[in-house]
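User: For my dataset I need records formatted as: sequence, then structure tokens, nothing else. Please produce one.
Assistant:
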Amino acid sequence: MSEPRSYGLFIDGAWVEPAGRQRFSTRNPTNGDLLASFVAGEKDDADAAVTAAARAFAAWRSTPAPHRGEILLRAAELFRRNKEELGVIVTREMGKVIAEGRGDVQESIDFVEYMAGEGRRLAGETVPSELHHKFCLTVRQPKGVVACITPWNFPTAIPNWKIAAALICGNTVVFKPASNTALCAAKVVETYEQAGLPKGVLNFVTGSGGVVGSALIDDPRVRAISFTGGVETGREVYVRGAKGLKMVHLELGGKNPQIVLDDADLALALEGVTFGAFGTSGQRCTATSRLIVHEKVYDQLLDRLVERVERFKVGDPIDPTTDMGPVASADQESKVLSYIEIGKREGAKLRTGGTKLTGGAYDRGYFIAPTIFETRHGTRISVEEIFGPVLSVVKVKDYAEAVKVANDVPYGLSSSIYTRDVNLAFRAIEELEAGITYINAPTIGAEVQLPFGGVKNTGNGGREAGSVAIEEFTEIKTVFIDFSARLQKAQIDVGE
């Protein structure tokens, strides 16, 4: 990479460096290399960004939606043109293997293009009136200034899920990214800048959630908050946003099960759990963190899985032959290792992994061996989100117990079942408590044209992506047009 760059804040169409601010750096979790430095924003910086967004709102909302879509299409083309460069940055800053780094950017391309098309739709509805010569319809209108607060695990895709959907609807945005992937976030902002987004429409403030995030949540001019992160932080965001009667959208994670029944294609199920549990080093909110296996095939599948995982190449994620890279940070490493110790204390049987990898190049990064525990349902490692390369395997006697175990956790994001029985597959679609269910596929692999989100502690009921993405960022206005040339009274004049 080129010499590390120092970034400012992006406010009102310009990169600025307010005087007197401290700075922080992002580093490669593989080897500790310095990548870039950023401003640790303060409350005044968040205020300036909101002021710029509020000032830009009237002109942006009045820009015809198809024209807004044209700017998004230019952004998508820039992401496509720079996909390899951005994919490498994702891998170097976050640690996912290079194929997944490119995939992160491809998801950005797909979603920004998809949202650009909404500029020709943004659909309301028309319905019949109960009265003569009266027309009834709904239209969508933007909410205003939106705060987008994003995590580090999909450092271009998740920001684009939020930003592109908010922009096409006519909102203006203040974007606060996770600090440890701020370079990826800055590249997203530069892309929209190069695409010709008017000044003030997208603003970018780096810094801590406790300072910048809190300022955005509490600012009365911010009318909607879109947040992806942990449950406890999400709950605080929700409560504080509610005090201002703001729309708050939360996506908070999962404890996702893959069920394997005794009639399953075991080779396919093995491929699914290997990718689902250890892709992105388990650092996806949809990662497979529980493998629930019918007792008749339990030993066979588990032995094959352990053998497969013990052949994993863990190392430099830029190397295309690497199966799994590091976890994203020292904090993440510490959390995952603490859960491994919890599993051991709970009496779970460690089948493989369970250690920090050391020696040679490993000593410069945050590498954890892919870990598999055999455990009983109800242990902490089987119900709490770990967000790392740790898989809990639970044995069940039949389909009914499998679904019961799958549902008996506080989360409900993604789920998966492997079976050749079409009746059980359809029952699982109905009975699994999750926002997403895969049949004969892993718990990861969402596509941008479909809604994404979950139930229970996974969030507060909203969905991102798909055709419903615009619901998060629009208000519905109901319109009645009476062309009868007389006063008509709904509910009173009916039938006359």
